[in-house]
Amino acid sequence: MDNYHITKDGDEWKFKKEGNDRATFKTDTKQEAIDKMRDYMDDKIGSVKIHKEDGQIQEERTYPRSSDPTKSKG
Fold it and tell me: What are the tens digits of pLDDT across the range 49-74?
C-alpha cells in the first residue's frame, strides 16, 4: 500500500507520495488539497496522512475504504 501526505510547505499545501522528491500537486489551501486528493485516490489503493500546519498528523484516511485494516467509525 502506498503512503501519501498532505503537508504545509511555505504558503502552499502539497500532496506527495512518500519517497518521491516532487509533490504530485500543490494548492493554495488545505481544503483544495483534500478535494483534489479525493479525486486522485479514486482508483488507487493507499493511505493518506493529513497534517496540521505544525506538521502533526491530524487524520489518516485509507483508500478504498475497504482496504482499511481497522474497522472503526470515521
Answer: 999 999 999 999 999 866 555 655 54
Rounded distance between C-alpha atoms, residue 15 and residue 26, angstroms:
6
Q: Quick check: 69 and 25 in contact, CB under 8 A?
A: no
The three three-digit cell numbers of residue 58, written as one number: 491530524
In this structure, is residue 57 part of a structural domain?
yes
Under 8 Å between Cβ of 6 and 51: yes
H helix count then E strand count, the chain: 1, 5
Q: How many domains does the chain have?
A: 1
- Residue percentage of the chain with pLDDT more than 90: 84
Q: How many CB atoms lie within 10 A of CB 18?
A: 11
